[in-house]
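pasting for the record
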Amino acid sequence: MSAPAPPPPRSAGARPRTARYVAIITDGNGRWAQQRNIPVQEGHRAGADTVKARLRDAVDLGIKELTVYSFSTENWARPEDEIEGLMQMHSERIAAETPELHEEGVRMRFIGRRDGIDAALVEQMGWAEQLTRANERITLYVAFNYGGRAEIVDAARRFTGSTEEEFRAVLYAPEMHDPELIIRTSGERRLSNYLLWQGAYAELIFRDELWPDFSRSDLEACLDEFSERRRRFGGR
């Protein structure tokens, strides 16, 4: 796929109207479950429900690409039963929700390494991408078995060019626009190996809500804060 078109020219210090390309580190599912003394898997299910709800809100709010951090390359260090539950839930959600999202005009893309994932789940991800490939209402990028460093290493292995544009072409999703805004929930203040290449000039907003509690009004507040910032891109 060809690289996305560059953003329109903007004078240094200009305020953006709204964020069209948003990425979220959906953090806090486990702590949410712990606070309620329920199994961690219930926290992940609540978090998945929140992804679906905020995706629909994103459409209403003019977002064209939403990227969510679903499972990182570092998450393999979690307890085996939690990993198995996450994989099963991911499979169930793809099977149940892809037709519905397709009807709503959502294009689905999964970014990350496919090796190490069960072949049946990889096949499901490919099916969801193929079914929704022509949809244009919004693109949902799901970062699954994803790490920013892993993406750069994998791209470097394939890279034969000399420019940033040529390097972008060998990333997991060359068509993805750089996120204008990255949001992280749960009170943590770090990127945790997320979109290291694409997020070079992203505005960062850190929220205290645990991900299952992140509401439409919270998303709107993030977009409002973004619209008040001045993006300089190295200028003054």
